[in-house]
Amino acid sequence: MVYRITASIWEQKSIKALKSSKGFWVGMKKFFMILTVFFAHRIDMAFDINWLMTGTLYFWIGNELISIMENYARMNMNFPEPFKKWIDGLKGKVEGN
Questions:
Q1: Pairs from 57-65 (Cβ < 8 Å, separation ≥ 24)
Q2: How sure is the predictor about 92, in pLDDT bands with cuts at 50, 70 and 90?
Q3: What's the whole-model pTM score?
Q4: pLDDT exceeds 70 at position 18
Q5: In angstroms, rounded to a whole number, what is the distance separating the alpha carbons of residues 10 and 14?
Q6: Contact 36, 56 (CB under 8 A)
Q7: Do 68 and 2 form a contact (C-beta atoms < 8 A)?
């Protein structure tokens, strides 16, 4: 939800129109996120384990937080200093430094 709001604000600031086809694919992504959590829960129940659904949830929450931070960066909003250091560290790992 927050991702969609920040993406919409960024698109309006960058003078890009919202497209229904993009909204459709964002909705499909959310549907598959819920579906993966559902299947992870079912696997947890089938094998009597407790960690697969939790790991899936943490993965998707992290994914959404990164998307929200990307949208904030596109809008030239300020980040707290710890986030800036963390993002710079991630950039260095991706670039191979």
A1: 60/33, 60/36, 64/2, 64/3
A2: confident
A3: 0.65
A4: no
A5: 6
A6: yes
A7: yes
